[in-house]
Design brief:
By secondary structure, the chain is α+β, with helices and mostly antiparallel strands. The protein is built from nine helices and 21 strands. The strands form four sheets. Strands 1, 5, 6, 10, 15, 16, 17, 18 and 20 form a nine-stranded antiparallel beta sheet that branches. A seven-stranded antiparallel beta sheet has the order 2-8-19-11-12-13-14. The protein has a three-stranded mixed beta sheet with strand order 3-4-7, with no helix packed on it. This is Glycoside hydrolase family 16 protein.
């Protein structure tokens, strides 16, 4: 019999990555939530949505970003202005000033997510050198979707494994390449009925956990009534092995993490229409009319539900490891890693060529 005592002894022999023990290294919460985020301050030239992402000053002045009475961060779409043709609606896109390395976990307690026709909201992460450094979508959903989605976007060569250990059976696509299937990515739907929309709000939202580990990427979701005790309160350390089977999992066997991913910036954003929510094949699945004409230009109250309410985002790292690359120095570090990776690739190619000769 495999006794608990032997299990405890065996755990001492396992590497840190397998032990999955992480300590708190960064928290975004309360009145200081927005202090270490960068506001994009540009029209949506990234996904071709019909929004202007406001800079910090305008976002706070216009009350599109603020801390509510409950102490939670609100990020929302303008739901009061009547627009004229060719105008875009104001919205929010923020990214962390710091980047977080392989061997980290981020946890987001989210009370409300943006939803409604034309709405495309996401909580995700990306390397500054996208797509070279990869993208991890923890939460993404559009229009009146029944489910939210999780996924990866990478350079060619990364796929979702048929051996992935995960609870969701709703696998939308398996090729993570940005060059495949119109950059659909390798997407897994969250099968929890309350993972999006009005049901998410009515049930008090929930907690997302994303593990960015050398042996793979995993995402858990717990609705408000099922949050495990190990995630409740001011948790200073976590062990992801105590969280059970993740909703989605991308093992390194079919997607080498150190090859396809670099340190990640966390991102919240809400756009309207655009390449995904506005695509006719997607929009007409759950909505009617013309995305821009009937919704963006329509009654601004369409966007009364187009907001994030976030209690906190916490980042954890493995003991003794560098997890946080701070500000511009972190960006430079990522660039150095990119150059180093290209140099090593070139050396490997020269070596292979020499062997061939």
């Amino acid at each position: 019999m495999f006794s608990p005592a032997w299990a405890a002894f065996a755990s001492l022999l396992l590497p840190a990555a397998v032990l999955a023990q992480y300590n708190l290294v960064k928290e975004y919460a309360g009145q200081s939530f927005f202090d270490d985020w960068t506001f994009y301050n540009h029209f949506d030239n990234l996904t071709n949505g019909n929004v202007n992402f406001l800079g910090a000053t305008d976002a706070f002045d216009d009350k599109l970003a603020f801390i509510n009475e409950a102490g939670n961060a609100i990020m929302k779409v303008d739901n009061s202005s009547t627009l004229k043709f060719n105008q875009n609606r104001n919205s929010i896109r923020i990214s962390t000033k710091d980047q977080f390395t392989v061997g980290s976990v981020w946890i987001a307690d989210i009370r409300h997510v943006p939803y409604g026709c034309s709405v495309w909201g996401a909580f995700w992460s990306s390397a500054p050198t996208w797509p070279l450094g990869g993208e991890i979508d923890t939460f993404e959903a559009v229009n009146q979707d029944y489910y939210s989605h999780m996924g990866l976007h990478t350079n060619p060569g990364c796929t979702h494994s048929s051996d992935a250990v995960q609870s969701s059976k709703l696998i939308n696509s398996t090729d993570c390449s940005v060059q495949a299937n119109g950059n659909q990515g390798c997407i897994v739907s969250n099968p929890t009925p309350s993972s999006y929309g009005a049901d998410f709000a009515l049930t008090g939202g929930g907690v997302y956990v994303t593990e960015f580990a050398i042996d793979g990427i995993s995402i858990w979701y717990f609705n408000r009534s099922s949050i495990p005790s190990v995630l409740q309160g001011n948790v200073s350390s976590i062990n992801t092995q105590q969280l059970g089977i993740p909703v989605a999992n991308w093992p390194a066997d079919d997607c080498a993490i150190n090859q396809f991913f670099q340190p990640q910036e966390l991102v919240f954003d809400i756009t309207l229409c655009g390449d995904y929510a506005g695509a006719s094949s997607v929009f007409f699945e759950t909505c009617t009319g013309v995305c821009y004409d009937d919704w963006v230009l329509g009654d601004p109250s369409h966007y009364d539900t187009a907001y994030f309410e976030v209690s906190y985002v916490r980042v954890y790292g493995q003991p003794g490891e560098l997890t946080v690359l701070q500000g511009s120095s972190g960006r430079r570090s990522a660039e150095v890693q990119t150059v180093a990776a290209l140099f090593l690739f070139a050396l490997g190619s020269l070596y292979a060529f020499a062997q061939f000769l």
